[in-house]
Task: inverse folding
């Protein structure tokens, strides 16, 4: 899996192995990205099929804590 981040979006390129299902791969990839970014809510917005068994996932990041000032 290759990850690229641009602003508030993450692009993940994944390649399915033989006998691997797309839904399983999507859910495990999404969970891995959520674990790597604990301060953000991660939302999958698009899956693009590049070629046979190769996909690009486009995800939005949004802060879990909002944009307000920290409490004192």
Result:
């Amino acid at each position: 899996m290759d990850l690229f981040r641009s602003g508030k979006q993450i692009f993940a390129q994944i390649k399915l192995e033989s006998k691997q299902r797309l839904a399983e791969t999507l859910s495990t990839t999404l969970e891995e990205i959520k674990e790597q970014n604990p301060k953000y809510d991660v939302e999958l917005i698009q899956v693009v099929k590049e070629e046979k068994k190769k996909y690009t996932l486009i995800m939005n990041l949004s802060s879990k804590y909002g944009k307000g000032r920290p409490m004192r």
